[in-house]
Amino acid sequence: MMIVMKPGATPEEVAAVVGKVERIGAQAHVSRGEELTVIGAIGDREHIARLGLEGTAGVEKVVPILKPYKLASREPAHREDTIVEIDGRRVGGRNFSIIAGPCTVESRDQTIGTAHVVKEAGGSMFRGGAYKPRTSPYAFQGLGQEGLRLLAEAKSETGLPIVTELMDARDLESVLEVADVIQVGARNMQNYPLLAELGRAGRPVLLKRGLSSTLEELVMASEYILKEGNEAVMLCERGIRTFETAYRFTLDLTAVPVLKEMTHLPIVVDPSHAAGRRALVEPLSLAAAAAGADGIIVEIHPDPEEAICDGPQALRTDDFAAYVERLEAVASIAGKELSAV
Ligand code: PEP
Ligand code: MN
Hints:
Blueprint: E1 2-5, H1 11-23, E2 27-32, E3 37-42, H2 45-50, E4 59-63, E5 84-86, E6 89-91, E7 95-101, H3 108-120, E8 125-127, H4 145-158, E9 162-165, H5 172-178, E10 181-184, H6 192-201, E11 205-208, H7 215-226, E12 233-237, H8 255-262, E13 267-269, H9 271-275, H10 278-290, E14 295-301, E15 315-316, H11 320-333, E16 337-338
Helix pairs in contact: 3-4, 4-5, 6-7, 10-11
Bound molecules: phosphoenolpyruvate and manganese (II) ion (MN).
C-alpha cells in the first residue's frame, strides 16, 4: 500500500502513521518529496487495509500497489497455488511431476519405446517435439504431422498425457488432437498472438522462459493466456543466456522461489536445455526439486549418440528409473509427492 500524506502533514502525523504500520509487523518506507510525503507500507495487505488509515490525521489517500500482471499474481485474490489437472495428473501444490521423453520424435521404435520407459519408471507425462524450433533453418525441423501421429500412438499405448510444442498457430487444430499440454518454446515466449490463441484454445499450456527474458516478462506473457480465460498455465525455467560459456545456458534456480512469490502458477524446470550435457542434468534436476519446483521436464533417449537433436544432453533411457527414484526422494524432502497414475 502507498499512503499519500496531505501536503501540510506534520512530522508527528507521519510518525503516527509509521507507528501504526509497524505495530502490525509491516514495514514503512518514508519518502519525503518537496511537497508530499509518501509512506510505502509493505506487509500483509489485509492487515494494512484494516488499519483504516484513510481517515487518519494528515493522510490524503491510501493507494493499493497493483502488480501489472493481475491474473497471474498471487495477490490479492489468488493466494493459493494453482493446480493444473491433466488427465488425472496434478501439477502444482504438493504434487511433483516428471515429464520426460526425447527432444524430437524420430521414429516409431524410438517414440513408443521411450514412452514405455517413462511409464514404467513412474513418469507423469511424455514429451516429444513434432515441430522443432531449430537455430538453423537447414537443420531437421521435426516430423510434423507424422510426429503427431506417433505421439498419439505413444499415448494410446501407455496412457501418458502428451506434452508437445506448437510453433505456428496454423498447426493448432492438429496439435490439439494429440496434445494434453501445449508447449510454448523459449523462442516464442513473447509471440503474443500465439499466446492469445492458446488462451482461447483452453488446453493446458507449458510456457517456457525466453532465453533473455526477465521473470516479469515471463509472468506478463502468461497473462496473455490467462486473459483469454485459460487458467491452466505452467511456467518453465529452462536456462537463460549469461556471460558464462562453460555450459549451454545458466539454469536460474533463484527463479523458482521468486516466481512462487510472484505467481500462483506451477513452476516446472527444464534442466536439459540449460545443461547441454548429460552429466549436469541430474544434479540440476535434484537442485530444482530442492528449490521447490513443481516438476521437471527432461530429455531422454534410448541411444543418445544417434539422436537427431540434443543427444549430448539426453539421459539414457536405461538410467531413467534410477534417476526418477532419486528425484522423487529430493522432491519428498521439499514436501512434494510424485504425481503419476
Ligand atoms: C525443447 O523443449 O525441445 C526446446 C526446444 O526447448 P526451448 O524452447 O526451451 O529451447
Ligand atoms: Mn531439445
